[in-house]
Amino acid sequence: MYNGVITYQWGDIMAVLIVEDDPIQQNALKILLTEYNPAYDLLCASSYAEGLDLLSHSDISLFLLDVELNPCDRTDTKDGVELARQIRQHPEYLHTPIIFLTSIPERILEALNQTHCFDYLLKPYDRGMLYHCLDQIHFPGNLPEPQVSFSDTQGIHIRLKGSEVLYLCSCGHQIQVHTNDGVYTTCAMTLDAFTEKLGLPFFRCHRKYIINLDHASQYDKTNRFVCVGSESIPVGRSYKSEFEKRYTKK
Predict the structure, then answer these.
(1) Model confidence, pTM
(2) In what order do the strands lie in the sheet with 182-186?
(3) Of 141, 176, 200, which residue constitutes the final position of a domain?
(4) pLDDT above 80 for 141
């Protein structure tokens, strides 16, 4: 399931973090990943704590997380879903792909809703299932276009193609969704909720604005304004560095 995460070109050197507590499954996964792409730089952990430590000291491009992690001791109740929550707290990993590994189908919905993962694999998975997930990351041409869905102030459910949306703006207790054809207003979601829900090409450039980078045509670096459609949108100081990285790559 595609959530607008960052995708990577084939041959890019990528650090991949595997968090799997079963040593046999961890080793098998390493072999499959190396066969798929020898350029992968594989990092391995067998617990929440080890995964968190590697997260803090590495620049990760892809996460494969076992949902059910055996506790290190009686006080350790944190699992792969909790680790994914911590990953999403890092701005640089907000849209980095996460693939969950689980043998419990009942945990899938929780993982999807709470962490906006890229996809999941039900154990026992095979080479083809894993490689299909990885193909979607490296070869995103066939991925469906992201959708923007919400209920407007009249309670009518609105579903828009991502390409139709220029930007979103917070106005008081309401969010305005600006398109080429008009403006929709919702009070059912906050801008923070939209930020978590939307992936690329959408980017939070200001505490009051999310823009569609595909519609960004000019950027005034001195005054920190980006042109989206016919509007000049401010870029907040705390968002400037990450915005400029994304803008130059679009």
Answers:
(1) 0.55
(2) 182-186, 174-179, 165-171, 209-212, 202-206
(3) 141
(4) no
